[in-house]
Design brief:
Arc Repressor Mutant, subunit A; seven-stranded mixed beta sheet; elongated; 6 helices; Metallo-beta-lactamase, Chain A; alpha/beta; 22% strand; binds zinc ion; 2 domains
Length: 278
Amino acid sequence: MTSFGPDMPAFAELAPGIRRIVAPNPSMMTGPGTNTYLFGKKAIAVLDPGPRLRPHIEDIVDKAAAPIRWILATHTHPDHSPGVRLLAELTDAEVLGMQAPDGDHQDQSFAPTCVLGHGDVLETDEFTLEAVHTPGHASNHLCFRHVASNWVVTGDHVIDGSTVVINPPDGNMKQYIESLKRVKDLRPDALLPGHGEKIDEPDRVIDWIIDHRLAREAKVSDALAGHPGVTSRDLVPHVYKDVPERLYAWAERSLLAHLIKLEEDGKAVQNDGHWSPQ
Ligand SMILES: [Zn+2]
């Protein structure tokens, strides 16, 4: 399920005025750790400070080497935004993003001073970042286009070397695929993912993700046709033959996301947790 590349450098300058620090939170779900991006040289915007780990937050302040004026979050999962509050306390920066929805795995400490919507821009003397609403992995997920480079920070919408979890009800597969097309339509020159290395072939990677998801959907559809009235849990081994049993709980969440998409597309029906083809 997860196949990140070799170790990444903890700090990298990707282009003049675009820097990346990897948070020290590596795991199966976060790969090498969460990527924190710094934009600007004289007045800094920090994107996704990651988990609330004081040494990492202090490292961000240190590496910024200039006043941090803005803190942005792609979404409010525990590996992306809990560091925001501490960083804001240390810097008095403005906090920008979308509020956390209710539910599990949401960082309710995230308190934007400026709530962003699709198309909103942060324009500074040095750079412009444009918010692109990309629900799917999370309902409040934003990508950010750095206008001058035409690079797009993708948070957990697109990550390097792995697929992301779509966990209903906040995660939604139909919206996810639509949001992938939305990013592709920006014709970005590169993607800066929340985990892993910079992606230099956005079109190829996004097409692969969409194809991969639709191929999985076709498997779900076929399995459902062969086992009408089944629960999502019972369908897992029929659809995720390539996934080891210890990952079945996660696989079931993705499977459920596919079933809900099929339902939204009018191709499946659910009755009391039992699914059948429409
Ligand atoms: Zn996430």
